[in-house]
Design brief:
By secondary structure, this protein is α+β, with helices and mostly antiparallel strands. The longest helix has 26 residues. It is globular, with a radius of gyration of 16 Å. Helices cover about 20% and strands about 45% of the residues. A hairpin with a 4-residue loop joins strand 3 and strand 4. It has one domain: Alpha-D-Glucose-1,6-Bisphosphate, Chain A, domain 4. A 7-stranded antiparallel β-sheet has the order 1-7-6-5-4-3-2, covered by helices on one side.
């Protein structure tokens, strides 16, 4: 007898925080360059603008990963020097993906970077969704470690 896996929608979130010994301006310059991802995001081949707008609300980027997967993202909220929020509209096994990267000065030379997201899946098994959440968590973590290494040079 074949057991059918019940497929349904799942909701989850991912949040990773890292402390970086550098200036707030240096961190903001790096994370707010929304097509500069290949320098610190893991497995990114290239990122291009799909909009005339390059910063702030309304800017759109297309990320191409080394495995060929492409994700289109739109900036929906932006406060210069503090945070920006983006949504993925194409390329993920999700109905909704909203993420925010924010920075906060913790002391004279320590900047806290927080990357958090809300996800709502397309129809899939809970096991698959939990694996996807774990993958996203390790992706955020490894990318933030890259960012730290880059900025603390």
């Amino acid at each position: 007898m074949v057991k059918t896996v019940k497929k349904s929608f799942h909701t989850g979130s991912v949040k990773k925080i890292i402390m970086i010994k550098t200036s707030k301006d240096k961190v903001w310059r790096k994370v707010s360059n929304i097509v500069g991802l290949p320098t610190w995001l893991i497995d990114v081949k290239k990122t291009v603008y799909l909009s005339k707008k390059k910063r702030g609300v309304g800017a759109v980027r297309l990320i191409t990963f080394t495995d060929g997967n492409k994700i289109e993202e739109h900036i929906v909220s932006w406060k210069s020097g503090e945070y920006f929020t983006y949504i993925a509209t194409e390329g993920l096994p999700l109905r909704a993906y909203v993420a925010t990267i924010s920075i906060k000065v913790k002391s004279k030379k320590i900047v806290q970077v927080t990357w958090q997201s809300y996800l709502n899946s397309k129809k899939m098994s809970e096991k698959l969704f939990l694996e996807f959440l774990a993958f996203m968590g390790s992706f955020y973590e490894a990318s933030l470690e890259n960012l730290k290494a880059l900025l603390e040079k």
